[in-house]
């Protein structure tokens, strides 16, 4: 893992990696059964020989948390978490297109939650608000709306409301899997002080936009 300024915030496979959770996107958000990712989440054994299987480059802790959520949901270390950027623009009218969106929103929300201190104050919330906004910034590009970002932001709450069960499923899975992965690395790893949700962070973002 490399942490440096101006990193591209990415995961690059160095060799084929062994899946430590169900993979694929067919059949549900990020795939595998009626609700996606059916079955237990099993991290790799701790005693496995320490041979690097991927290079993770990030700018700092917030970016590392974001990438960790994607890794946990993907169930393996793979280039760009297995996202096929050649299919951009994704179609939010399809299950697969929405699965990418829910994955990204979950990475944004869960990484924000882990940045919060046990007793969050105004500075914590300011940091989280800024990080949430930064993470969402690229999303219009994925859906062919890079020249109409306002249209994307206007439509996003409606997409969430229309497919609430899909987002809730992926977000709950993200929290559960990240917690499991962190506790595999350190049994004393704490859970986030607040289990944030999309609506809370979106309302805060909207309120900030209204004040500008």
Structural summary, described in words:
The structure is a single chain. The protein is mostly helical. It has one domain. The chain contains seven helices and three strands. Strands 1-3-2 form a three-stranded mixed beta sheet, covered by helices on one side. Helix 1 packs across helix 2, helix 2 runs antiparallel to helix 3 and helix 2 packs across helix 6.
How would you sum up this structure in a few lines?
This protein is mainly alpha-helical and 212 residues long. 49% of the residues lie in helices and 5% in strands.
Any chance you could write out the topology, listing elements then pairs?
Blueprint: E1 2-3, E2 10-13, E3 54-58, H1 61-74, H2 95-115, H3 122-136, H4 139-142, H5 149-162, H6 164-185, H7 198-211
Parallel strand pairs: 1-3
Antiparallel strand pairs: 2-3
Helix pairs in contact: 1-2, 1-6, 2-3, 2-6
Main sheet strand line-up: 1-3-2
β content, as a range?
Answer: 5-15%
Structural class: mainly alpha
- Quaternary assembly: single chain
Largest sheet: 3 strands, mixed
Helical content stands at 40-55%
Dominant shape: globular
**What is the alpha-carbon Rg in Å?**
17 Å
Number of domains: 1
Give the total of beta strands: 3
Q: Which residue ranges are poorly predicted, with pLDDT under 50 across at least 5 consecutive positions? A: 24-39
| Number of discrete helical segments | 7
> What is the helix/strand order?
EEEHHHHHHH
Mean pLDDT: 81
Intertermini distance: 38 Å
